[in-house]
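Pipeline run #58 for the internal structure catalog. This entry was flagged by the ingest filter as a single-chain record with no existing model, so it goes straight to prediction. Upstream metadata was stripped on purpose; only the residue string is passed forward. Reviewer on rotation: M.T. Logging verbosity set to normal.
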Amino acid sequence: MNIRGTIDRPLTNDPKKQAPMKPSTSEPDGFAIPDFTITDARDSRQNRTREMQLIPEALARAHMHERLHEAERERRAMRLATARRMQRRAERASMRARRALAMALMQ
């Protein structure tokens, strides 16, 4: 049986026996990556797979970082709204106390 290897499951696990990366023919000139030597192909493949595996982790980390900042901003906004509400309540209580004192002094 003659089964060809894929990127995830290469025909051989020995990087020296794997074919070097070739530029895609579908890409326009100037965008394709130049041919690699066999050692460069191994290093490039290892770096690319490591980077590719770390992309979802980096995205998740960035997403969680953004969500933490968003939650902190919401907490600050809630504290500010609560402080303003408490300040208005204290001002109303102060005005009631002044009025009550003024009424008591008038009588």
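catalog note: Residues 23 and 33 are 5 Å apart (CA to CA).
catalog note: The mean pLDDT is 78.
status: ready for reviewer M.T.
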